[in-house]
Specification:
Pfam families: TP_methylase. Keywords: Methyltransferase, Porphyrin biosynthesis, S-adenosyl-L-methionine, Transferase. This protein has nine helices and ten strands. It is of the alpha/beta class. The chain folds into two domains: 136 residues, Tetrapyrrole methylase, N-terminal domain (Cobalt-precorrin-4 Transmethylase, domain 1, 3-Layer(aba) Sandwich); 128 residues, 2-Layer Sandwich (Methyltransferase, Cobalt-precorrin-4 Transmethylase, Domain 2), CATH 3.30.950.10. The strands form two sheets. The protein has a five-stranded parallel β-sheet, with helices on both faces. It is globular and about 55 Å long. Bound molecules: S-adenosyl-L-homocysteine. S-adenosyl-L-homocysteine binds next to helix 5, strand 8 and strand 10.
């Protein structure tokens, strides 16, 4: 099955990257959960790994790309360890590279969006190892897209802030009131990671700069079959999360683009799935004048049956 992914339409295979002869380390973004969201570069790196160090929130299905001989080590809480200390993971990565292994450090979403990829890279570089990074689809992006909402729809937002709801131990964490004021005046969407435990205090802070009726979405297990979500308002956020029992891992999205999610949900309910939308807009490959108001009319593919 694995080989088939790399077969081009003309039936030639993609050349695989030359296998390195010394140890190496690649930080790979496994995406938000759906294994189909893995990049080709990620799948290829997983195939070539001799050791995989796997985080929590990485869907086991992506490990199907690993070679049968590869050693798979779960280094997250759900892997059996209470919570593998970060320093231990970093030392393990280095030790495996130094023993000549092709190490893949598999992280949920994107390796450089939260999730401590930056610390791991700094540690490796300080020890003379230069890791390769392969991006993944970050959970915040997948969560918003799964609702049918464009993250930066220009009618609703001018930008987006990816922010953690979980302060570094000993750190003060974001100034939510200040952030809310900026988000309000600059029309920014807030995409909050790790915000479940602190949802109450985050809400109180945000209400000091954003109207109580600001739309909010909570998306749990984005992109996975067990995905659940709710659309509510800022004032109602904690009560909605409690009532709908939305827990971790979830993304909380705050801002007017959530209106698009509500509209998308409405449209989905009213569309007959047999119809599948306007057939004239499917399978087009022509170039359009994007500035013109009207779509060009297309000749029917085949003559209508008499
Ligand atoms: N590097 C990851 C984020 C790691 S921080 C990324 O780019 O996505 C962990 C947080 O990410 C979780 O607490 C949750 O807020 C979010 N998260 C990860 N996977 C998720 C998913 N499938 N659905 C919703 N939130 C998710």
């Amino acid at each position: 099955m694995n080989d088939q992914l790399f077969v081009r339409p003309d039936n030639t295979s993609l050349p695989s990257a030359a296998a390195p002869s010394v140890g190496s380390c690649t930080l790979v973004g496994a995406g938000p959960g759906d294994p189909d969201l893995l990049t080709i570069a990620a799948a290829r790196a997983i195939q070539q790994a001799t050791v995989l160090l796997v985080d929590d929130l990485v869907n086991d299905a992506v490990l199907e790309w690993a070679a049968p001989s590869a050693r798979i080590v779960h280094v997250g809480k759900r892997g059996g360890c209470q919570s593998t200390p970060q320093a231990f993971i970093q030392r393990l990565m280095l030790q495996e590279v130094q023993s000549g292994e092709q190490v893949v450090r598999l992280k949920g979403g994107d390796p450089f969006i939260f999730g401590r990829g930056g610390e791991e890279v700094e540690f490796l570089r300080a020890h003379g190892v230069s890791p390769r990074i392969i991006n993944g689809v970050t959970a915040g992006l997948a969560a918003v897209t799964s609702l049918g909402a464009p993250l930066t729809h220009r009618d609703h937002a001018q930008g987006v802030v990816f922010i953690t709801g979980h302060a570094k131990p000993g750190g003060a964490g974001p100034d939510w009131a200040q952030l809310a004021q900026t988000a309000h005046s600059a029309r920014l969407t807030l995409v909050i990671y790790m915000g479940v435990a602190g949802a109450n205090s985050i809400t109180q802070g945000l209400l000091r700069g954003l109207p109580g009726d600001t739309p909010v979405a909570i998306v749990q297990h984005a992109s996975l079959p067990q995905q659940r979500q709710a659309i509510t308002t800022l004032t109602e956020l904690p009560a909605t999360m409690a009532r709908e029992q939305l827990g971790s891992p979830s993304i909380i999205v705050v801002g007017d683009i959530v209106h698009c999610a509500a509209l998308a949900a409405q449209a989905e309910r009213s569309v007959d799935p047999q119809q599948g939308g306007d057939p004239a807009l499917h399978n087009t490959s022509s170039f359009y004048d994007y500035d013109s108001e009207a779509l060009p009319t297309r000749a029917p593919r085949r003559a209508a049956q008499p």
